[in-house]
Amino acid sequence: MSLSYYVPCMAEIDQEALKKYSFAVWSYKQGEVVSALIHLGDRLGLFHAMAGVGRVDSHTLGESTGLHERFVREWLNGMAAARLISRVDDTYELSVEGAAVLADEEGAVTFSAGAFRGGFSPDTLDAIAESFRTGVGITYEQQGPSAAAGLARMTGPWTRHALVSTLLPRLDGVVDKLNNAARVVDIGCGAGVTTCTLAESFPNSTVVGYDPSTTAVSQAQELAGSKGLDNVEFIAAGGEDVPDDASADLVLTFDCLHDMPRPDITMEAIRKTIKSDGSWVIKDIRSNGDWDRDKRNPLLAMFYGFSVTSCLQSAMSEPGGMGLGTLGLHEAKAREMTAAAGFGRFTTHDIAEPANQYYEVKV
Ligand SMILES: C[S@@+](CC[C@H](N)C(=O)[O-])C[C@H]1O[C@@H](n2cnc3c(N)ncnc32)[C@H](O)[C@@H]1O
Question: Most buried one in 118, 167, 203, 335, CB count within 10 A?
Fold first, then answer.
């Protein structure tokens, strides 16, 4: 196959616009390599070692982390150039805000360093490129163990800090049911952070996590084991396969419906698994289904990037997939699809969380 390329006539080019455009492109390259620096800072314990210690030089930081001073110094200069740490003479400091975003995984809801997985493996990138040719994407399982683990570290801080304290009290009678003895189904549970948080917070209830990724399920089982939980179970199966016995008091689909090839079939299965007075909570990516409104989001390109490389891959991983992708389950779509599956009540809970929206759906 021969490809022909458009070659612009240099006379047509506005030099100022060219400069700006080149800068925009190289800024994304800078983002790629600064992302690698953040990944290394997280992986090597550098942020942790800098948190709360004030100004530090590269020798001291090298000693406290057991790392080679020359590499530590270059990393510090890169992070200072990225304005993520400050440099005065030969000393460097991670601010309190920096520590809350990059170091404090257990204590801060804003912790984000876990989202920096260090890029994609060449095999994953090959498979993503191939999906453009075949129209069939790769599942989360095929995206490798770091996909499930990375997602768990990305969604973990909100789940640990806000799920029980902020979201659950807004739901119709759910906390009382959970305190008594509720049966909870967590569909698309991934590495089990939400499932285990609920099981730990409500020991009288039982929580069952479903996910088709065996990698995610084994990570979830490990997490439950490390916490000694005996009221949680994980099943390697999709949301389509939940039992049709009207037994669930609470069903969760957290950031997963837009990843499913057939979310409509899962919604029909939820209608059959939920009790007549049960609650179903959908957490899905904040979007409007309208380009002009969505483009006000300064991180919109990142969400489309997540989609092309991960969510849409999964949503197209079977021929005939609906292909909603990261931004595809906006409120209007969620209302339309849940109504089609036989649900009559739909409430939006506007929680101050920039990335996601929360919907409570009932029969
Ligand atoms: C973005 S992750 C979300 C994981 C977890 N709920 C969280 O909030 O961290 C999406 C998950 O949906 C799962 N998934 C994909 N297709 C599914 C299906 N048909 N049924 C259930 N889960 C599915 C993937 O394996 C993946 O673990």
Answer: 167
